[in-house]
Predict the structure.
Amino acid sequence: MKREDIQRAVKKVVLHVFEDMYFMFPEAISKDEPVLSFPESCFKARVALKNGSEVFMLYGSEQLVVDMAKNLLGIDQPIAETDLIDVFKEAANVIAGNLVTSLALDSSVALDVPAAERLQDCSELRKAPGAQEVVFKIDDEFLKIAVMTSNG
Amino acid sequence: MAFNVLIVDDSSSMRNIIKKTIEMSGFDVGQFFEGSNGREALAVLDKEWVDVILTDIHMPEMDGIAFLKALQDQAIVSTTPVVIVTTEGREERIEEVFGLGAKACIQKPFRPEEIRKALMNVLGVDEQSMEKREVEEGCDF
């Protein structure tokens, strides 16, 4: 799978999912554009592929996940931690599922059940973006999608 | 006639969204039942009468494909329509769920109209009777 194809698909899918599910409008940030400060508090979600080598990772700032949950659930009250984790996990599921469709991966490749957690240490976000990563700015909040493969 | 609806998804937020969407769509719902995987859904079906099932595919313990196969074994799928609500859009996967008896397939993220249309189709409800109900009850969709 070509790097450009993955990046193009990630941008298209993230835009589609955030517009339709959360009424938010992500903007992809280029590597040379130091627009965002890294969040101190964030969530991480992970979806692996069965019979495939790819793993999709999502990182979102805490405020982004709170805003996603409020928009999705249509409520304006404080949201429990378990619900924030559930919303971010489902976001990872929907994005990964649409990516698999968009990239037309072989039908033997299936999504594993996603997992999400609050990251106690967000320092891994500060790593320089790799070839298979896209960073988005969404209402001044941070989202990073990384597609990792077992062969690098 | 009020319909009993079973929603199966491992995400509680997604179950809530589907429930709200159906409520807003103007269907006469008797009761909502929920399950976070196929196994929990089968336990509900053991005890309750359900008119329509909406289920995800990717779930822990018993996924949507295994759930559909279990419904087929129990001949439930021939009497209770199943709507798949999933992130999957690949043709082979969609063909697979239809082959297992699903009556409709909706891809996430979905629009409320897609849920409404699919339910109308599988439950055999026409637009006229929905409109009549909306006027009678003042539903605004």
Notes: The CA atoms of residues 2 and 141 of chain B lie 18 Å apart.
